[in-house]
Specification:
The complex is a heterodimer of chains A (about 140) and B (about 400).
Chain A lengths: L2 E8 L2 H10 L2 H17 L3 E6 L7 E6 L2 E7 L8 E9 L3 H11 L5 E7 L11 H13 L3
Antiparallel strand pairs in A: 1-5, 1-6, 2-5, 3-4
Chain B lengths: L2 H25 L2 H22 L5 H20 L4 H8 L11 H15 L6 H12 L4 H8 L3 H17 L9 H23 L10 H17 L4 H14 L2 H4 L19 H13 L7 H13 L9 H14 L3 H15 L1 H11 L10 H12 L3 H14 L3 H13 L2
Helix pairs in contact in B: 1-2, 1-3, 1-5, 2-3, 5-6, 6-8, 6-9, 7-8, 9-10, 9-11, 10-11, 11-13, 11-14, 13-14, 14-15, 15-16, 16-17, 16-18, 17-18, 18-19, 19-20
The chains are: A alpha+beta (about 140), B mainly alpha (about 400).
Chain lengths: ~140, ~400
């Protein structure tokens, strides 16, 4: 029962800002709403969330030799900002790609298609996996 | 298979219901619409991998299907006024900005026609998967382990029956709708149960079919959001499917509920099932809602020991009253065995053994054999379990029954 996460990313901030300035907010909402409705009515949508824009972003950078570096605001090197996700249940990867194509309508954005592995694809005898299974049992999951 | 071909099929799965639905409304002829839609799909399967996908694939499919429908009408030389009118406006491009409300009605009408009572159960199932689900005859045949020509014949016959019985392409009137909806839910349930306990063959669970049944039920709810029993059915499917990951072992053999590793239950499906069950309750639970409530009682229990068996017994009693069925009584007997021991359960089983409707299934001797085993009546238990194994058509389940016989003292 393949589950896919469709991850919405900003890849060209200038292009996106220009589009945002041009397209009325109501119109964007309308487009997004129609697509969400289509996902719901096709019976494939399991979950969706959108994330705050990048002025609220804090990034921590890992470096084995140093403590993590914390930076405020937009990414420095990486331009690709994670903007939200859809979790869908579809028959094939091609179907996930087709939905991603439909969600790729906003200039400067990209949609990434990732399969969600199930917990039983990990070693079941690992104590940490068992702990996670226990947590999922008690708290639910998406 | 080529990627381009698979891409066409993916689009078809998403769009089939809306394309066939819109076309059936447009032509007023369900069979013609389905044929034309299939022709358009066949053309896409040739043209897209060769020339690349068109900029507006859905519009392409719709326009092509509409043209094929008109071609057919012309070829047949149909004189009827309605068809004449259609042929005249053929040059009008298909209105891409379809009225959303209208699409919903088209999809709903499509489901009602595919599940129409004039059709056999097998035909309803095949037609629903084909036109609403967008599955090919090959996919349906694979799912039900029957030859492709069998499915093709079923669909052809179903379309002829609909035409002969003059079934209109419309959503039934409100007073007829409740009864007809029960028929639609039954078809979705049949698809799910075939997926969740394959009646024949090597695999116990065919998840693709069970997944498709859930998707189609969500499609139904999407266009008919105020029907509690549709939510009840979805809840039942989600809660049953939540156990799939634990229902078979590494070798693919079935694991009984009491032996299942509950940490492997799909908690996302449980969550969705419980949410759907909430929506199923406003007018009291119907047959699917009650079964979902039973499944929910299992889903929230940590173990067999801590399961609220008394609640399950009461729910089975209620279910037995509104939808009398010997299988329900049999399941109630199993719950009674858990709550009050095998002897009282055996009394129930012996009472329902007289019901001829259970003669063809292995379920009765399976349960009876198990109860006798627990009571230490080994000779009788062996006889029943052997009878059950002889009647069981699923390879995996049969193997478990044979093992039970072998394990008897």
């Amino acid at each position: 029962m393949p589950k896919y996460m469709l991850i919405w990313r900003t890849i060209d901030e200038d292009k996106q800002n220009a589009a945002m300035a041009e397209i009325p907010f109501e119109q964007m909402l309308e487009k997004m709403g129609q697509l969400n409705d289509e996902l719901i009515k096709s019976g494939v949508l399991l979950a969706m969330e959108g994330l705050d824009p990048e002025e609220h972003t804090v990034v921590t950078y890992a470096d084995a030799a140093e403590p993590p570096v914390v930076t405020d605001g937009p990414y420095g090197e990486t331009k690709e900002l994670f903007g939200g996700f859809y979790l869908i249940s579809v028959a094939s990867k091609e179907e996930a790609v087709e939905w991603a194509k439909r969600l790729s309508y906003f200039p400067g954005s990209a949609v990434e298609i990732r399969r969600v592995p199930t917990i039983d694809e990990f070693p079941q005898d690992n104590p940490w996996i068992q702990k996670e299974l226990d947590w999922r049992t008690k708290n639910g999951q998406l | 298979m080529q990627d381009a071909t698979r891409a066409v099929e993916a689009i078809w799965r998403i769009e089939s219901a809306r394309i066939v639905g819109a076309l059936a409304r447009y032509t007023g002829d369900f069979a013609l619409a389905e044929d034309a839609a299939q022709e358009a799909l066949a053309e896409a399967l040739v043209a897209w991998p060769r020339d690349g996908q068109p900029a507006n694939p859905v519009g392409w499919l719709m326009t092509t299907a509409k043209r094929r429908a008109i071609d057919t009408i012309r070829r047949a030389g149909v004189q009827r006024e309605k068809y004449e009118a259609i042929a005249h406006d053929q040059d009008e491009a298909y209105d891409d900005e379809l009225d959303i409300e209208r699409i919903d009605d088209d999809v709903l009408a499509l489901m009602f026609v595919s599940c129409h009572p004039v059709l056999s159960k097998e035909a309803r199932v095949a037609l629903t998967l084909r036109v609403v689900g967008g599955l090919s005859s090959e996919e349906i045949a694979r799912a039900f382990l029957v030859p492709v020509p069998t499915i093709q014949a079923r669909i052809t016959r179903a379309k002829k029956t609909i035409a002969a019985a003059k079934v209109p392409f419309e959503v039934p009137s409100p007073d007829e709708r409740r009864q007809r909806l029960a028929g639609v839910l039954n078809v979705l349930y049949l698809i799910f149960t075939e997926g969740s306990t394959a009646t024949s063959g090597e695999d116990l669970i065919r998840t693709d079919l069970a997944r498709e049944a859930r998707r189609l039920t969500r499609v139904l709810i999407g266009v008919l959001p105020d029907e509690p029993e549709a939510y009840g059915l979805l809840a039942l499917m989600e809660l049953t499917a939540s156990r799939f990951p634990a229902r078979t072992d590494a070798a693919g053999d079935p694991v009984l509920l009491e032996d299942q590793d509950r940490t492997r239950w799909d908690r996302g499906a449980v969550r969705r099932g419980l949410a759907a069950l909430e929506q199923a309750t406003p007018r009291g639970l119907g047959p699917y809602g009650l079964q979902a409530a039973i499944a929910a009682t299992h889903a929230v229990a940590d173990s067999v020991e801590t399961t609220d068996w008394e609640r399950i017994i009461v729910l089975y009693e209620a279910l037995g009253r509104i939808a009398p069925n010997p299988i329900v009584d049999l399941n109630r007997a199993v719950a009674v065995a858990m709550a009050h021991g095998p002897l009282r359960a055996l009394e129930i089983v012996d009472r329902i053994a007289e019901d001829k409707r259970l003669d063809h299934t292995h379920l009765l001797p399976t349960v009876r054999g198990e109860l006798l085993r627990r009571l230490g009546r080994t000779v009788e238990a062996r006889k029943e379990l052997e009878r059950a194994a002889g009647m069981c058509t699923n390879d995996r389940e049969r193997a478990v029954l044979r093992q039970k016989v072998a394990d008897l003292p």
